[in-house]
Amino acid sequence: MPWNGSGTFNRIYSWVADKAAGLDISSTRMDTDTDDIATSGFGNCITRDGQGQPTANLPMATFRHTGVGNGVARSDYASLGQAQDSLVQWTIAAGTSDAITAIYTPSQGAPVDGQIYAFRATAANATTTPTFAPNSQTARTITKAGGAALAVGDIPGNLAEVILRYNNANTRYELVNPASGNNVVGTGDVKLTLKTAADTGWLLFDDGTFGSASSGSSNSNSAANQALFTLFFNNLSDSAAPLFTSTGSSTTRAGQGTAAAAWAANCRMSLNKTLGRALAVAGAGSGLTSRALGANLGAETATLANTNLPPYTPSGSITNPSNSIPIDGAVGSTGSTFAPGNGSTASFFTSGNVITSTFAGSAQGGTSTPFSIMQPSSFFNIMVKQ
After folding, report:
1. Residue 343 has pLDDT above 50, yes or no
2. pLDDT tens across 286-334, in order?
3. Which residues make Cβ contacts (< 8 Å) with residue 282, sequence separation at least 6?
4. How far is CA 110 from each of CA 71, 90, 98, 114, 119, rounded to the nearest angstrom?
5. CB 25 within 8 A of CB 18
6. Which residues on adjacent β-strands are paired with residue 384?
7. pLDDT tens-digit map of 164-175
């Protein structure tokens, strides 16, 4: 008779009952009873040395395991202290700034979809495609949410805490807390700012140049500038963003061939001019002049020339009938002149009793001083994403 399902073990035979019934001790009955105790009793117990193991779920009836150690394998219980310490999914990173490795204890297998990894970074990422490999697993690219590329420095190097979540469908790790935020900002995007220094992963528009570490530009970086350099090379013209060699000599996009060739040759690229200028939208607006991307034009002042003025020189004739006194009281014979009082000269002649005078005006005076054509403006700095 095994356990009754409620935790009570019932023996098959009772020696007291056999005595009362006048039955002698029997080896057969004794062996049957003892064998049942060994098999159905002790054989179904969990032993302290781990030999007897459960064969079904073990309800704890609100009781708990106490005095347990920390788990060391994925199939172990975790102690409450181990869970509170949160060290199972956290470690200090190793590897390099863009090939990050980490060892987690207990050792973990291949990442599963949605798995969280946390580590303390020791170096800032210097490229937009750093990788992560926990416990010698395959290295996978780290991205922002949705697969957007990281900005340089999105993983800070000042012992910052980093959180990754594995995306199995795209075999990538997504950075939950990038330094630049998870708003998807891409190379070439710009923002207004009152800062006087560029954020990490951005360049301040300063009418200068940028390029590789060997370009001799005013904003040199070995890797961070390459994506922006390529965008400028392909999207802006030589006049909007002039190109120079590493020694500062003028060159052209056609002369270099491709953005990759120009970058490899350590050319420096000009930032299109923005300092002190109003911003406008490129393109061909309806009824407006087409404007090229990155181009600049305009002036702060203008000077009017005579050709900018409407016609202003008067001319004509005045007929003075009945021999009346001519303009300004001048009287004379044909061919005489008089001053009509407006700064011009006039001539008059007679025809019978009619005196006719003709006149021609003179140019207006003035110094043609330039005057401001600036619209009311407010000035900010601008950053562009590398």
Report:
1. no
2. 999 999 998 988 899 988 887 777 765 565 555 555 444 444 444 444 4
3. 291, 292, 293, 294, 295
4. 19, 16, 21, 12, 17
5. yes
6. 190, 203
7. 999 999 999 999
Say how far apart CA 217 and CA 196 lie, in whole Å: 19
